[in-house]
Structure formats: structure tokens, C-alpha cells
């Protein structure tokens, strides 16, 4: 069957319908890359957004301005997600300003790569501290508020939604990046265990697992034609991901359109997890 003979299915979409109208969202690490795109897109879908950042106040302010310029509402809050005190202060500030939180996107993350036998304890602790403990600290504050407030049916069928920004490396081992892969493997089981624990409160918790997305975290993997060609060997869809792809997926997964989805890892990776080497080998 070729494309001409396939029935055409056009999904109707009401242009005036905003998926997240009236909801309050916090996006961590939102001054760049995927977090920035998610913050902008959630605002486009009607959410009021907190743009968390740890460094780069001007970049965070630019995200807030971009949202305001298209009629949305946003504020920037500085906090290191690996600090319990700063995370608690950030949630207090958000709840004082917006009244509550409906959506947490646990996006902040970093890499500190080294061959395993040269990896310092500080590199290990930094990556686990931000990528895993940071997600724990933010998720805990969000769950406390979701449980306190419960479901508000006019806002959403769920009492709250959490997205853990994971990675294909929650399942693909990654030599030279053992701390990063360990952190994302931890994120996977934290997300699924938490989803199991809080489902009865109608709190939804899911992971999004990007493949290779064009952001500052992985510049070396795409900035030269040689590096890009090497990268394409890992991506059956033969194209690098853009931050906006992750943003659109996030908006849908936290919306009521995805209300029955709980505890999944949603891979947005152009097929990177399909063992591309087996397309020609094996
Ligand atoms: P990025 O470097 O542009 O964004 C990461 C953000 O996290 C930055 O804004 C950074 O300042 C922030 N951050 C770092 N430490 C922080 C801390 N202690 N507190 C608060 N914020 C902190 O890179 P990105 O690609 O947009 O990464 C976003 C997320 O997506 C990360 O969790 C990353 O692991 C994940 N991811 C990215 C890719 C990719 O290919 N780009 C693939 C898989 C997963």
C-alpha cells in the first residue's frame, strides 16, 4: 500500500481551544534548551508559567518577556533544584503569586562526563544531585500541594501532573557518562514508583525521554557536519530533534487529553531506542 491509497485521517483541532487554560505550571531549568521551549509552549496553551533558572537571569527574563509578548503570564524564579531550602522557597513564592501549582515539569539537568576511573566524587554527586535529587525535591513539594488542594474539576480532571524529563539513557547504557545514565535510570523508577503511590489521589506522573535534541547540553554531537553524520547513524528518522517537539509532547501529556496515562516513559527520539544497528546488521 502506498501513501496515495492510505485513507487520509485529519484530526480536527479547534483553534481557540487551549489545552491548559487556567493552569499553573513550573518548569525547572527553563532559561535554555528544552525547558525554555516547554515554558513558552505551555504558556501558548494557556498556562501561567514559572520559569525556574539557576544561572542566566537575563535569559530567564527573555523567556518571561517572550511569553508576555504573546499575551501569556510568566515569572522567573531563581533556585538551585538540588537545594532543599531553595526549592521550598521557590514553591512558596510560586504559590504566593499564583495560588497553587497544577503542573510540574522537572526538566533541569546537566552532564559532567568522564571515563569511569577518572570520574570524581564531585562529578558523580553533582549529576545525581541535580538530575535525580533535584527531581525528588521538586516533585515532593508539588505532591504536597496537589494533595492539599485536590481536584478542581473546572481546571483539570487530575489533582496535578508531573513530567520527569528523563532521556533515552534511562534504558540505553552510555559509556563515559555513567553518572548521567545512572541519574536517568533512577528518574525512571522514581517516576514509576511515585506514579503508583499517588495515582489514587489523581496525581499523574510520567516521564518524557528525549533522544538527541538540538540544545546547549549536546552541542558537540551536532555542531559540525561530521558529528551530525555520526549522530544520524543512531537515529532511524534521520533528523535531530528540536526542543519544540518535546514541548508539544509535554503539553499534551500534562493535558486532560492524556488523563488516563500514568507512570509511562514516553520516548520522543526518532527511533533511537530501536537498536538502529540492527537495521543492517544482526
Ligand atoms: P540545557 O543545558 O539547555 O538545559 C538544562 C537546564 O538546566 C539549563 O537551563 C541549566 O541552567 C539548568 N540547570 C542545571 N542545573 C540546575 C540546577 N541545579 N537548578 C536549576 N536548573 C539547573 O539542556 P537541555 O538539553 O535543554 O536539557 C534539559 C533536560 O533534557 C535535561 O534533564 C536533560 O538531561 C534532558 N535531555 C536532553 C537531551 C538532549 O539531547 N538535549 C536528551 C535527553 C534528555
Mean pLDDT: 95
**CATH C-level label:** Alpha Beta
- Return the string of H and E elements: EHEHEHEHEHEHHE
**Protein structure class:** alpha/beta
N-to-C terminal Cα separation, in Å? Answer: 27 Å
Largest sheet: 7 strands, parallel
How many distinct folded domains? 1
The stretches of 5 or more residues where confidence is low (pLDDT under 50) are: none
Please state roughly what percent of the residues sit in beta strands, choosing from under 5%, 5-15%, 15-25%, 25-35%, 35-45% or over 45%: 5-15%
In the CATH hierarchy, the third-tier topology is known as: Rossmann fold
Count of runs of 4 or more consecutive helical residues: 7
**Helical residue percent?**
25-40%
Q: Radius of gyration over alpha carbons?
A: 19 Å
Assign an overall shape.
globular
User: Which superfamily, in CATH terms, is the homologous superfamily?
Assistant: NAD(P)-binding Rossmann-like Domain
Ligands (ions, cofactors included): nicotinamide-adenine-dinucleotide
Characterization of the model:
This protein is α/β, with parallel strands linked by helices and 282 residues long. It has one domain (19-217, 242-273): NAD(P)-binding Rossmann-like Domain (Rossmann fold, 3-Layer(aba) Sandwich). The protein contains seven helices and seven strands, in the order E-H-E-H-E-H-E-H-E-H-E-H-H-E. It has a seven-stranded parallel β-sheet with strand order 3-2-1-4-5-6-7, sandwiched between helices. Strand 5 (160-165), helix 5 and strand 6 form a beta-alpha-beta unit. Helix 1 (33-44) runs parallel beside helix 2, helix 3 (84-98) runs parallel beside helix 4 (121-149) and helix 4 (121-149) runs parallel beside helix 5. The longest helix has 29 residues, at 121-149. The structure holds nicotinamide-adenine-dinucleotide.
Amino acid at each position: 500500500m502506498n501513501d496515495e491509497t492510505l485513507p487520509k485521517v485529519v484530526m480536527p483541532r479547534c483553534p481557540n481551544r487551549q489545552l491548559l487554560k487556567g493552569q499553573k505550571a513550573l518548569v525547572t531549568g527553563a532559561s535554555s534548551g528544552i525547558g525554555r521551549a516547554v515554558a513558552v509552549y505551555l504558556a501558548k496553551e494557556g498556562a501561567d508559567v514559572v520559569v525556574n533558572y539557576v544561572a542566566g537571569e537575563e535569559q530567564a527574563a527573555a523567556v518571561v518577556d517572550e511569553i508576555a509578548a504573546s499575551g501569556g503570564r510568566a515569572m522567573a524564579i531563581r533556585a538551585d533544584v538540588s537545594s532543599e531550602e531553595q526549592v521550598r522557597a521557590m514553591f512558596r513564592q510560586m504559590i504566593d503569586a499564583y495560588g497553587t501549582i497544577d503542573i510540574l515539569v522537572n526538566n533541569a539537568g546537566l552532564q559532567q562526563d568522564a571515563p569511569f576511573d577518572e570520574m570524581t566524587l564531585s562529578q558523580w554527586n553533582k549529576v545525581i544531585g541535580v538530575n535525580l535529587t533535584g527531581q525528588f525535591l521538586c516533585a515532593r513539594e508539588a505532591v504536597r500541594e496537589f494533595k492539599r488542594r485536590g481536584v478542581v474539576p473546572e481546571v483539570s480532571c487530575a489533582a496535578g501532573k508531573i513530567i520527569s524529563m528523563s532521556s533515552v539513557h534511562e534504558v540505553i547504557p552510555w559509556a563515559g557518562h555513567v553518572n548521567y545514565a545512572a541519574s536517568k535510570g533512577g528518574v525512571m523508577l522514581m517516576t514509576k514508583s511515585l506514579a503508583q503511590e499517588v495515582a489514587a489521589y489523581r496525581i499523574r506522573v510520567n516521564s518524557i525521554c528525549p533522544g538527541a535534541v538540538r540544545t546547549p547540553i549536546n552541542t558537540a554531537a551536532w555542531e559540525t557536519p561530521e558529528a551530525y553524520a555520526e549522530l544520524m547513524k543512531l537515529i532511524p528518522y534521520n533528523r535531530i530533534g528540536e526542543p519544540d517537539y518535546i514541548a508539544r509532547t509535554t503539553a499534551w501529556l500534562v493535558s486532560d487529553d492524556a488523563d488516563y496515562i500514568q507512570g509511562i516513559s514516553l520516548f520522543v527520539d526518532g527511533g533511537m531506542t530501536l537498536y538502529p544497528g540492527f537495521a543492517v546488521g544482526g
